[in-house]
Every structure is written in structure tokens, then in C-alpha cells.
Amino acid sequence: MARASSSTKTAKPAATAKTGKTVKAAAPRKTKAVALPAAPEPFQAGSLKRKQFATTGDAHILGDVTIATQLVVGGDLLIDGDLIAEEVFCLGKLTVTGDIQVQSLYIGQALDAGGHVDVEFLLKTGCQPEWMANLLAAEDSDDSAEHLLEKLVHPAILARHSHADVIGGFGDIQCLGYLTCGDLDCQGSVQLDEDLEAGEVLFIGGHLAASAVHVRGDCNVQGELFSESDLDVTGSLYAAELQAQGNIRAGSIGTQGDVIAWGYIRAENELSSLFGEIHAGRWIGTRGNLYAAKYIKAGEAVVAEKGMTCGSDYGIFAGSILPRSKWEKQGFISASSKPKLVLSGAWVESKKLRQLDTAEKKRAPELDWEIARQARHDMLQQAD
To answer: What are the Low complexity biased-composition ranges (predicted)?
Structure first.
């Protein structure tokens, strides 16, 4: 039986082919860890009212904050009150228990607001420190972006940002009130207790949920878009899925998944669902083409002035909430040519979207289930 010690002998260094001499393996180099300076103590104050304010670390303000021009925070900013400023740069997470009223708001991580958020121009989350430094350098031509980055955030805070796990989600926006802004660029999800009013939604990397959504330009949402009432977009609307407990109105609508509305679905141009169905509790209308990979369903009429197509193994339902005697007047299907796979509803030629709009205006308002939500929206508009 072989001795156990023989297997534990160290192997001799191998000899080289040319010299026959043994060569010892080079010892691994020992690298010294570079110690970062300690992070500065968080700035604390009972309230803050200045022309300008900047800190490279965290800040905690126990009252209201009013800054006449620029507020720059390299770390996290917690405000137990309201925030009023011209420009706000926060590389960490911004938490405000009250209302926010600013011209421009740039956030590195997440935004958590206990009240309303009113941004006149751009609201952007998920900003990189270098991006913020370049933006500040563009405003201050006397200083370089590299130098401004050193003045913007402490090295220890910067290292923390690069390895931090954000509990609220990177780039997320959570607001217990309404959100109004000129343009919205959010790398995470947006969760609002009240309405979203925006000039344009440039990008939302996650989901969007609000009491109502009103966008004057285009709206681009990578995840699901959910509205507790109406969803109104003047330009093009893109989302993974759409769901509204009211009406959906847009210049054009394109989704990966389902488009669902308790009321009607209206598009000036194209209306399509690449992999899902289009389902309206009332009617569906578009001046362009209507396409769904699965079913097209409407409680009343379906009108597509250019063409209408559903999935080959599915079908088109119209008038599903009406008796068959009313299909020709209210539960009809109309397009440039009669579509295949019509499962319910009456085929009627030459109907236009404007005819649906006219009929909508004649609806008895006292019977409209949307009145309560519309009145709430009008009150918010008057308050602004």
C-alpha cells in the first residue's frame, strides 16, 4: 500500500528545453488596496433658504428648502418639507415629504415625493455623474467636466453610488400626488397616486401607473401603461401593454401586448397590437389601419378607415353588449374592405371615425360613468 505522504510531495520546477536549468515560478505581485477618504458627515439644517447651495455628500433638511438658483447634492437628499428651486442636481436618491416646484430636476437614482411634483422643463432620473458634470460644464464654460465632477461629489460617495442597491429601484419615481412636467425621461418605473400631465414622455424604462395620463406630445413606455381613468396622448403612443379604466385616445397606438379600455379606443392613425388583442368596452375607431395578432373586441362599433386585420385563428367581435337588432346602427364593423373572421356585429360600408365622434358628443352626460373622474380632472386643472 502506497504511503499517503508520497502524494503530498511538492512538484519540482520543470527544466527549460534549451538550458536544462530549472526556473522558479514568479511570485504573484501584491497590490495594495487604495483606501478612499471617509465620506463627509451629512449636512443637516432645520430649513434652507439661499441663493445657491452645494454639498458633495448627503443632506438632510428638517424643513422647507427654497433655493433661488441652483441646488447641487452629491449624495442622497432628504427634505422634511417642500422644495422650491430653479435647478436641482441630486446624484443619489431625492426624498421630499412635501411638494416639489422646480424648473429642471436631474436625479441620479430615485425620486420619492409625498406631495405634488411640478417641473417646468425636464425631469430626468438615472443620470450618471459624468453626464451631470458635462451638463454643468456646459453652463459654466470656465470649468472642465473633470474638475466639476470632483467638486460635484465626494470620492467615497461616488464609489457608493457605483455599487449601491437602490431599494426603491434605480431611476424610479414614486409620488403621492400628481406629476406635471415639460418632458419626462425616467430610467425606471413611475407610480403616481394622481394624474400625470406631461409635454412629452421621452422614455420610461419600466411601468407607468397613474390616476389619469395626459401627454401633449409622444409617449414611450417600455413596460405596461395603466390608467385608472382616461389615457390621452396627442402624439404617438408606444407601450408593452395598455390598460385604461376609461378611454384611450392617441395620434397613433402601437403595443407589443394587449390594448384594453373600459370605454372607447380612438387613434388618428395606426392602431396595432403585435402579439396581443385589442378590447374596448365601447367602440374602437381609427383613420388608419387596425391590426391585432389575436382578437379585436368591441362592445359597440369597430371602424378602421384603411383596413382591419386580426389573427388567423381568432376573430372580430362587435356589438357584444348590444342586442342584435341594434348592430346596424351601433354595433357595426366598417373598413375599406370587409375583413375576414367577423364573428359578431353587422358589416356596414363607408363609416368614418368622425361619425363615432359625433355620436359620442350626443351621449347623455348624466348617464356617463366617466363623469366623476372627469370632474376630478377638471378640478385639478383649475387648481393649477
So the answer is: 1-26
Please state the rounded mean pLDDT for residues 272-301. Answer: 97
Asked if the model's pLDDT at residue 4 lies above 50, the reply is no
| Residues 180, 62 share a domain | yes
d(CA 198, CA 212): 11
Q: What is the 3-state secondary structure (H, E, C) of 71-96?
A: EEECCCEEECCCEECCEEEECCCEEE
Strand pairing category for 48-50 and 65-67: parallel
Q: For residue 278, is it within any domain?
A: yes
Q: Domain total for the chain?
A: 2
Burial class (CB in 10 A: 0-12, 13-18, 19+), 131: middle
Q: How far apart are CA 76 and CA 78, in angstroms?
A: 7
Give yes or no: residues 291 and 173 share one domain. no
Residue 54, domain member (yes or no): yes
Both 261 and 350 in a single domain? yes
Residues 265 and 325 in one domain: yes
Angstrom distances, CA of residue 27 to CA of 24, 30, 82:
9, 9, 60
Measured between its terminal Cα atoms, the distance across the chain in Å is: 92
**Residue 17 belongs to some domain of the structure:** no
In a domain, 281, yes or no: yes
State the pTM of this model.
0.84
Q: List, for residues 297-310, the tens digit of each pLDDT value.
A: 999 999 999 999 99
What is the domain range of residue 74? Answer: 41-198
Q: What distance separates the 2 farthest-apart alpha carbons in the chain?
A: 103
What are the residues whose beta carbons fall under 8 Å from the beta carbon of 335, sequence distance 6 or more? 290, 303, 304, 305, 306, 307, 308
